[in-house]
Amino acid sequence: MNTTARNAYLASSVTTASPQQLLIMLCDRLALDVQRAADALRTGQPGQAHPHLLHAQEIVLELAASLNVDVWEGAAGLASLYDYLHHELVRANINKDLRATEFCLDIVTTLRDTWREAAGSLLAESA
């Protein structure tokens, strides 16, 4: 698939996605970014980790900004988790720290899997 067609497909996917699908897409990309950063650090390429960790930080900030803490009882705790995760991603990036990056990957993977499960439950309830 050429770049133009791929970009058109991605833009269409985002504009037609439900809020739950958008959240899953963000979490999938977050996990991919942190995984790529960890892989780069493992292979001794800290410069390659930097853009992935920066993008991961941006995603976490977007997740935090879109969280409405007045709608859901657990939102304040999730906001704290996002804040902590962002802090750890920044620290991992500044220090090019593989252990910190892998720790963030564990958090992100768990978060992604939890959101997938929640979205699946919502879909099952609406069917």
How would you portray this structure in words?
This protein has helices spanning 3-16, 19-42, 46-66, 75-95, 98-126. It has 127 residues and is mainly alpha-helical. The chain has 5 helices and no strands.
Beta percentage is under 5%
- Number-wise, the strands total 0
Based on CA atoms alone, the radius of gyration comes out at 16 Å
CATH domain topology: Four Helix Bundle (Hemerythrin (Met), subunit A)
Helix content range: over 70%
* Total count of domains: 1
Distance between the termini: 34 Å
Q: How are helices and strands ordered from N to C?
A: HHHHH
Biggest β-sheet description: none
Just name the CATH architecture: Up-down Bundle
What's the pLDDT, averaged over the residues? 89
Structural class: mainly alpha
Which regions contain 5 or more consecutive residues with pLDDT less than 50? Answer: none
Give the full name of the CATH homologous superfamily.
Flagellar protein FliS
Q: Which of globular, elongated, flat, extended, rod-shaped describes the shape?
A: globular
Tally the helices: what do you get?
Answer: 5
Could you name the CATH class? Mainly Alpha
